User: Fold this.
Amino acid sequence: MAIFDIEINGKKQQVDVDPATPMLWVLRDHLDLVGTKYGCGIAQCGACTIHIDGTAVRSCSMPVSAVGNKSVTTIEGLSEKGDHPVQKAWLEHDVPQCGYCQAGQIMSAAALLDSNPTPGDAEIDAAMNGNLCRCGTYTRIKAAIKTAATG
Assistant:
């Protein structure tokens, strides 16, 4: 075990875990931040997407030891009141059905718009590639991202 000081959602947190522990389990099991979901465990579905210094990463394959001094943002930290432009657009377009993948989808979309405020279809497709939606709401996801981009 080792002690890690991590900035999560703007707040310093300390955890005592094995250095190989994936961030997903640090968040869920040690910090009770359960908005980040477990999907596949092999970084293929996107349900566990968080931001590390603003970049979308799969938390199921990111060991806590790799975070270092970087800033971590989870779905809980994206906006205090759930009013991030992507979250508002998600509701406007009725994106969620079962909702399981939505935190990861939203985090990927928010990272895209932070780096590219006006993405085209190909850029949206590339950024969202690997975020799986079992309900197949991809058309609404893309429409919501376009709405969030226009602000």
